Amino acid sequence: MDPRLADDLHSLPDLLDAASKLAAAALAGLDGRAAAVPPVAVEPGPLPLEGAGARGALDEFTRRWEPGFAASAGPRYLGFVTGGATPAALAGDWLTAAYDQNPASGMDSSAQDLERETVGWLAGLFGLGPEFSGTFVTGATMSTVTGLAIAREWLGERAGVTVSTEGAAALGPVTVLSGSPHSSVLKALSFLGMGRSSLRKVPVLPGREAVDVAKLAEALETLDGPAVVVANAGTVNTVDFDDLRAIAELKQRYDFWLHVDAAFGGFAALAPEHAALTAGLDQADSVVVDLHKWLNVPYDSAVQFTRRRDLQLRVFSNNAAYLGEIGETPDFLHLTPENSRRLRALPAWFSLVAYGRAGHREIVERCVALARDLGARIDGSPRWHLLAPVRLNVVCFTPAGEVTQDRIDTLVRAIAEDGTTFLTPTVYDGRPALRAAFSNWRTTEADVERVFAVLERLSHRPR
């Protein structure tokens, strides 16, 4: 054994204690750390010939890289849709690394059973019945890839073709309909061989990002065969929801697979005031839910739900003698693109056990209230223009006056350089804009005040 490995093994408790102290200091200092750190080119160093040992690596990381890390786990990081990590989820994530279980196979531990328990709890949170099965994946994009891969197999079933055997070319052209599809849908269609051009945009309701269900029905009426409909339970810009029940009712007249992107909007189901937005989610054929957003577990973590596990198994099954028989309860390696992976369910399990439905409902309701608070402040300021109602946890707005993409880009850079908060740019209804997404369990009213004060101050900067 390399002597450095032997030394590190001998001093492992001290090493973990040092790493714990560094992590604790980083978390304790989130309030003073910049929400975003503008990138500065760092010259790559050479790979050491002789290692420095784990303590040396810790020192090197602390010196060279740690100062450039953003406070993305903090309460004022409002870019993208980024949750933090609850204390329980963080503990679960550390134990995930320590136990280093591979839950893709159930031959050697109870890790798969823990994951199945966690998936069952999550399905219950979102109102999905026992007809749904679920699997952990890296994020909403891979959940979308998995769901649409099952949809592709379903299209083949309708056409008398086994796509998983004969290939996507045997299926021929397909039609995917959506009002405001997330960009990951296009990536998934490209990846799966259905092609980006298979996506047909359906008109949305006036002033909305929600699909016009009547127009969707008209589009389905023109088709000669089955299709895939991608619906939204929360759009990225304005958290708008398609009428899932009305879309599901169209199945009585038309043949289509209903894939619902509920990456973070699905968490509205936890809050009685907003749960009606997710009505009809249980009528979907596949569902995307991202956990490293509003469940506040560390990256990477998401779940893919479907009611057609038989087709999922047909797509992803991996037959090899060393893997054993598939059986009535397939191992997870037969249900997603991954053969092996970390036990992503453990941080979610920890957080769900620690805080329950009520605790996570409080996080959702507080984030919504804070988003509405910022939206009201922006709406009342002559320096800003609110572009859409604050329907849930995202505020979409733009500066007053003439707005160009250059002006938005300048603002994004200025906000990042200030360090108090971080927002991401977007385009809404053809207008360059900013968006603030609230999904971190740490965020408070005081943070909203600080964010708004920065926005007001930076609005005075030259255009």
UniProtKB/TrEMBL annotation:
Keywords from UniProt, A to Z, are: Aminotransferase, Antibiotic biosynthesis, Decarboxylase, Lyase, Pyridoxal phosphate, Transferase
Needs which cofactor?
pyridoxal 5'-phosphate
Q: Which GO terms describe its molecular function?
A: transaminase activity
Q: Which InterPro entries match?
A: Aromatic_deC (IPR010977), PyrdxlP-dep_de-COase (IPR002129), PyrdxlP-dep_Trfase (IPR015424), PyrdxlP-dep_Trfase_major (IPR015421), PyrdxlP-dep_Trfase_small (IPR015422)
Q: Is Lyase one of the keywords UniProt gives this record?
A: yes
Similarity comment text for this entry: Belongs to the group II decarboxylase family.
- Which PANTHER family does this entry report, sorted A to Z? GROUP II PYRIDOXAL-5-PHOSPHATE DECARBOXYLASE, MIP05841P
Which protein are we looking at?
Aspartate aminotransferase family protein
| Species of the source | Amycolatopsis bullii
